[in-house]
Design goal:
The structure is a homotetramer. Chain A is built from eleven helices and twelve strands. By secondary structure, the first copy, chain A, is an alpha/beta fold. In chain A, the strands form two sheets. In chain A, strands 8-7-6-9-10-12-11 form a seven-stranded mixed beta sheet, with helices on both faces. In chain A, strands 1-2-3-4-5 form a five-stranded antiparallel beta sheet, with no helix packed on it. The radius of gyration of chain A is 18 Å and the shape is globular. Chains A and B meet through strand 1, strand 2, helix 9 and helix 10 of A and strand 1, strand 2, helix 9 and helix 10 of B.
């Protein structure tokens, strides 16, 4: 017999997932969050922050390719990139696959997390923290953007859930998106994770899209299924410049080719089609005025 | 305090979902399976067979619209329809939305289940068991097809998992598909559920597609996300007649309109695009000779 | 595969028990509480009130013999008996084993529960609800005692946990015990369940004993292990008359014999010794002034 | 939110306990067993071997005082002591409280466990591994006893469950008990843990007592409740010399006093009475010929 060691993720009072754990590599608290790294039985090594599953060996590439490549494709010449959050370093790995990249500034508030990630999640970052083009800053992403005089071509939000009182809550607001916009070069593109897109639980996602639409002229939500979450997960690209001509199934593969992105595992033209064609209920939700009213309390997520 | 009553679905030893139950309406055994109908806290009323979640109020329409409409759209004039399984009766509800339908034969082995469904899952069947075009037979679907002299335009497999020793195992074999084909009118179309399409757990799905490709000239897998399962779920249409000209985002809405299918909640042109554009790993898996070899043991699913 | 249907009993945030359920016979709400009757896999048929395990086929006799016989033995001639609570009717069954009994008044507030118990828990009451000596009243036990002019030889408290805001909370107070005392004949004895006696979790038990000691001249706590609870469980007898000469290992068997109590399964002289010899930490807790101070908030039990 | 990290102990298919974990200090495998040391939310620091709870900060003294003191009291002059197992070192701590002790040989097969225990469970052993009277040997207890020419006054079995194929299985057999007896000085006493004494689950306990009775002239079972297990737990003392005159409530406190055992927390005269007065169903089980027949398969415990 082996120890039945489970991480149980309750989603409100009505749902829960069980992650059987083979070995707990680390269970600690930083100043900002509780950090667990464990070998799960079905998903391989995995990271949990404040009890919420973040990414797992088996499918982290789905999440990270989904988050990174559409925005980089949408921008004609992404040289300078900013990342709010980005903990595991897998976003660095994906961004650096584009041969146009000259500089990445990653601002993650939690230096303890970064140190742990460097040691325990090599498959995620693959050493890219040491790439000369990468600068990692331990600060509040918002405060950093407020002060910086740099301007970026792409900005990414690789952030945990916008939990009430949590460190990411204010990075999902219109104010933050306006700040992000003001720090972009012309044609700049923002991409971020935008929460659960399930039927019945997509309110926070719709609220984020709604916030983006108040700030950016062009907003395109999309989604990928993340087995580790047991959920379809939302993302969005947003820009004041139109990007539809670049960001479509016809162009995507050509642009990836030009950029030297030849070793992707998940993202390609048809996967793009899959991600960007949204089911009817999501499209309705974006337009529904009743839904819009309810969204006022949708963010931040309440903890219970 | 209320009772913490959970239905826990273990998927092998490495994963499990928890369904908190508000009230158990029925927990019994028929000759063929254990049947539970319960009010879940998050998905509304739901049906579990042998401990496996089948369908829930909140998203059964996603599953049933996904299963039914593509095949009916693919057939130019579906009049006679056969259903292997079909327990909840929601497939009847969806099929009858097409104004071409003249006759439906539904062969479900478990009469106890059908009786329970009629009483407890009205929202699923909406009284369609009593439609004069519907004939329900309690028999083994295979035995029935072997004997019948009728021929059908569309045949549906609305079946539980092909579990080792379970009643559905032999309805996922090449032999059964060949039998199905022999009972079709010219241009006949088969559609069926084809199991989990998650990255890392899609082996049974790929094996089913593989079996279909041995029997039918044209096979098209697709998928929808079912929150109640916490999974993306596979389906397929298969036919000896080509259907690509009818079954695409451009044609789907026109055909649904012609058929009088105006009250669908999930399926439309863009949802079609979402369902039929498959992520790269699935497309690779269908073609991979290494995967093909492993598929020999993929079905039936072992119980553990 | 069978449904993994679990009733999970959380005890605060730090402990929980899982009861695998074979079949849920009933899950409903009365005006006063949520009622579940289920076939458990390991304890047989069982009753849960507001999610808290009450009694199970396999060991309900341990609980009910423990509650009833010591007090009846302590009283020289118990003829008239009052029960506050008593839901399952097993207390009736045990009390009627004493050939001195002339009348039992059982006041349980929840008539819906009693009706359910009569139908589903026959092994508990064994038809004794229909015994001519038994009168069942559906009322608040306190209100009933305030009004009654009857006097009783033994009074039993067969009550659920004294949960904050719950119906039993005020039946564990000094006020209620004083009321009980005023409704006793000379030599009258009270017995009641007095909660968990585990090391580390016996605060509520000690508080109840403390309350009893404020009202009665003679108070004797004792305990039995209830597998269904996974706990040692406390009881007490209390009286203004001394009972030590009757209630000891030497006398118990003789008195039971005289009373015609020959078919007990659990209680006898040595079991008595086991129940009434208390481990050191409990004896210390009753005397400890520090503990006494903390007891002020020990009752009612907070819900969380 | 904090991670909901649970260790779940399944007892067969019908029961389970949940231990919420605050922090996993260590999760590893030795050559003999899987070892987990974790901070539990309700029991403090705790040790799990092969998924089975062994001892916890909050109540390990109950287990270890129960195991050690009765046998030492039963022996008139315990100088040399042998321990089979003894992992946590808490048995050393308890034995050394008796001022007669001159030598303790502790033979625990798992040196990795002992090393871990020394580092993580100081409160258990309190440095007694370094006491000059203590000799720790990493070997199979049976092989050691077979070879040794030493003779002992008291021998203790502080062993995990006798699981099928596990390292402790053969240390619960009549053969082992006969070996133990042959290594005793005149008047030698054996004490050991004897598994679960719950009503309904005491078969293994009764089988162990039965085995002891085949080998020793005097066998006395007893029990204590261990909250960490959620169970009453069995022990036994066994000897060829009569010990009833020493091992009773009257003598126990006097002997402990003489020995200088003045700082016990759990064991004293009345606790002794509690532990050694056994409920009726246990006493019947020891004598029941039907039970005796079933015992042939009761050991070792099957794993499922």
């Amino acid at each position: 017999m082996l120890t039945q060691n489970w991480i149980v993720e309750f989603r409100g009072s009505g749902r829960a997932n069980i992650y059987p754990i083979q070995e707990t590599l680390l269970h600690t608290k930083s100043q900002f969050q509780e950090i667990v790294i464990a070998e799960t039985l079905s998903y391989g090594r995995a990271l949990f922050l404040d009890g919420v599953p973040q990414s797992a060996a088996i499918d982290e590439h789905v999440y990270h390719e989904s988050l990174i490549h559409p925005a980089l494709v949408a921008n004609p010449q992404p040289k300078k990139v900013f990342i709010a959050g980005g903990g595991e370093g897998a976003v660095l790995r994906e961004i650096l696959k584009h041969n146009t990249i000259e500089k990445i500034v990653m601002v993650d508030i939690d230096d303890v997390l970064i140190k742990i990630v460097k040691e325990h999640l090599y498959e995620w970052h693959q050493g890219t923290f040491d790439d000369p083009r990468v600068e990692v800053v331990h600060a509040d992403a918002r405060a950093y953007l407020e002060q910086t005089e740099e301007r970026f071509d792409c900005i990414f939000g690789d952030l945990p859930d916008p939990l009430e009182g949590g460190p990411a809550a204010e990075l999902f607001t219109r104010e933050f998106y306006a700040l992000v916009k003001s720090r972009m070069n012309a044609g700049g593109v923002l991409a971020l994770q935008t929460e659960n897109t399930e039927i019945g639980w997509c309110k926070a996602h719709v609220a984020i899209i709604n916030n983006l639409q108040h700030v950016f002229a062009h907003v395109q939500p999309y989604q990928s299924t993340i087995p580790f979450y047991g959920l379809p997960w939302g993302f969005a690209v947003a820009s004041d410049a139109p990007f539809a001509e670049r960001l479509n199934a016809q162009s995507v593969e050509r642009i990836l080719q030009e950029r030297g992105c030849t070793d992707l595992s998940y993202y390609d033209a048809e996967t793009h089609q899959h991600m960007f064609s949204l089911p009817r209920f999501l499209r309705s939700a974006y337009r529904d005025p009743e839904v819009a009213q309810k969204l006022q309390n949708a963010l931040p997520l309440s903890i219970s």
